[in-house]
Design brief:
Elements (H helix, E strand, L loop, with lengths): L2 E5 L5 H11 L5 E6 L3 E3 L4 H5 L5 H4 E3 H7 L3 E4 L2 E5 L4 E4 L4 E3 L2 E4 L4 E3 L23 H16 L4 E5 L7 H16 L8 E5 L15 H11 L2 E4 L2 E7 L2 E7 L5 E8 L2 E5 L1 E3 L2 H4 L25 E3 L22 H19 L12 E6 L4 E7 L7 E6 L1 H20 L5 H9 L8
Parallel strand pairs: 1-2, 1-9, 2-5, 9-19, 11-12, 11-17, 12-13
Antiparallel strand pairs: 3-4, 6-7, 7-8, 10-18, 14-15, 15-16, 20-21, 21-22
Bound molecules: flavin-adenine dinucleotide (FAD).
Length: 428
Amino acid sequence: MAHIVIIGAGIGGMPAAYEMRERLPKEHRVTVVSAVDYFQFVPSNPWIAVGWRQREDIVLQVGPLLAKKGIEFIAQAVTAIDAPGNRLTLANGDALAYDYLVITTGPKLSFDEVPGAGPASHGGGGHTHSVCSVDHAQAFWADYQEFLKNPGPIVVGAMPMASCFGPAYEFAFIVDADLRKRKLRNKVPMTFVTSEPYIGHLGLGGVGDSKSMLESEMRGHDIKWITNARTTRVEAGKLFTTQLDDQGQVLKEHEVPFKLAMMLPAFKGVDAVAAVPELCNPRGFVIIDEHQRSKKYRNIFSAGVCVAIPPVETTPVPTGAPKTGYMIETMVTAIVHNIAADLSGQPADARATWNAICLADMGDTGAAFVALPQIPPRNVNWFKKGKWVHLAKIAFEKYFMRKMKTGNSEPIYEKYVLKALGIVRLAE
Ligand SMILES: Cc1cc2nc3c(=O)[nH]c(=O)nc-3n(C[C@H](O)[C@H](O)[C@H](O)COP(=O)(O)OP(=O)(O)OC[C@H]3O[C@@H](n4cnc5c(N)ncnc54)[C@H](O)[C@@H]3O)c2cc1C
């Protein structure tokens, strides 16, 4: 009998638990340990921030859902991992032994890298918001309602070392759409400040025609932008950013005024994971081989935002490569295959495709991209805009929430529809 422990109950952890339970014989135990007792559908947080969704629409209590499938759940943060000893220490002081460990702890939101940035309640200086968690999105919504009574300039964007740019664009367009509906857009100058070298880079070196399409959308929506932006500090109502040129030399210093700001922070690995000797790169992301397996500790696997992926290319202001939902699910499927193979004495050689598919809502329309594989040159490099994306994003939310409620992580129709489009989870 083996005990498989999964840390994290997010977009990676929940499917990992369900898929593991489904695939492994019943004699093996599966336990999920997570810092909070709920799952949140992170892609819908931007809608929470403008009041288009309520918390209960996108949050699920995971204990009862996992219990129905025979998966144990512990709602405690992991504070230390003794990798050579195969043991975790939890926040309440308990110890938990494992045979295999799956790390899906997502990002540490590293607000403190830019003085004055980030919600004060999350270790930041308090002058900018985030939509990375449901709590942060609710905090934006509270301030946004006050802002609407007396609007002013808004700043949206991403800090140096951010690795998730789609949600920043998405949020800028959602706020724009919301303000237009309220007939207040004329009172709100908007500036998009990003560490990307150009609009539409997305941490991916661009996808298809993303540069010109997104630039055109920003112009069409009266959103000004500053790229290659190394934001250095934030004060109440002022964001200080140094714009670099393509050679990394200073081009211009900007002091951008705002009444409300949402800046995605730098991402790092969470402390308990980053502290394990030789498990992670210097920013605390888990170093894995092509089978999602730690190079140092062969019974540790990892998926999601917490894994180390090299940037697609070097950029004047450092940016990271995004890890999107479907890509994370492909990583999870590979891990489940590999642990099952290891347990039955077979070679653990499954490889995830890491196919990047993303739907970004723009309020009333949207933009979708498919990058197969993620690192160019690609077999599929596709970026399209249309109202259908807005509808598809709503469908994606309902569909994923249903998958998490029913515990079926890859329903058969998903498998065959995506396969028909040439999108599969495991590499041949
Ligand atoms: C605002 C936003 C919007 C996004 N929108 C999209 C989108 O539309 N489409 C898309 O494909 N991707 C999107 N992404 C990217 C990606 O899908 C998400 O970031 C996704 O949530 C990542 O999943 P994850 O499992 O790696 O981390 P998370 O979903 O963040 O889960 C991490 C889990 O680990 C737990 N945890 C953390 N530390 C500990 C600890 N020490 N002990 C125990 N538990 C711990 C947390 O409680 C949580 O349960 C978006 C990302 C952001 C930030």
